[in-house]
Write a structure and sequence with these properties.
By secondary structure, this protein is α/β, with parallel strands linked by helices. Helices cover about 25% and strands about 25% of the residues. The strands form two sheets. It has a seven-stranded mixed β-sheet with strand order 5-4-3-6-7-8-9. The chain binds S-adenosyl-L-homocysteine (SAH). S-adenosyl-L-homocysteine (SAH) binds near residues 68, 99, 117 and 145.
Length: about 220
Amino acid sequence: MKDFNLQGIGMTSRRTRDRLVGRLRDQGIADERVLDTIAAVPRHIFVDEALAHRAYEDSALPIGHGQTISQPYLVAAMTEAILSGDGGAPCRVLEIGTGSGYQTAILATLVEQVYTVERIGGLLQRARERLRALGVRNVRFNHGDGNLGWSEHSPFDAVMVTAGASHIPDAVMDQMADGAHLVIPVGKGDVKELKRLRKSGDAWRQETLDEVRFVPLVRGIAR
Ligand code: SAH
């Protein structure tokens, strides 16, 4: 497991994080790589200091700009969904919706290279600073509209969308490698279906993993 640089960022106790991991395990998260990573990444540095005491609860929390850091259970379930069950991990992963950067840090620990896209410049900047403080180096950041993917670095071995989409963006599907997985909350209403799609030649295999609520995937960029 990677050693994070935790100097000067007020590390909460390992025990607090282990309790969260215990709860995730009880809820059915089974991949030890994911559980170990959740135990290792300090979630409290991804929220405002005033909320840090709630960082190891299994809930979404506000991060400003009307956005939220995802609930740990969903971070774990979505991460598990893009790691293949046979112990292999995708190399190049596109994340759409950097937000706080917490999910980014989890992915960066488990895969070779993460490409992350966020439409709100202020959030992207803070996420970049947090990951730098943690000593995470295998992440490229893009202030852009994730509906367009990030063609320059495609094809991707896996794609994770961490905002609720009304439909699956075509550009993102086009930028996936053969055999790649896409995990995305998608649907018309407020409650989305968390779907996993696998690209296989021109065909797509689709499964529904859960029903979830997410902040919406919107168009365009903002400061
Ligand atoms: N994984 C993040 C989740 C943040 S919430 C975390 O745990 O912190 C979803 C994020 O998606 C928000 O930051 C929102 O600004 C971003 N988002 C919404 N639409 C987007 C788009 N079209 N392109 C890129 N990011 C988008």
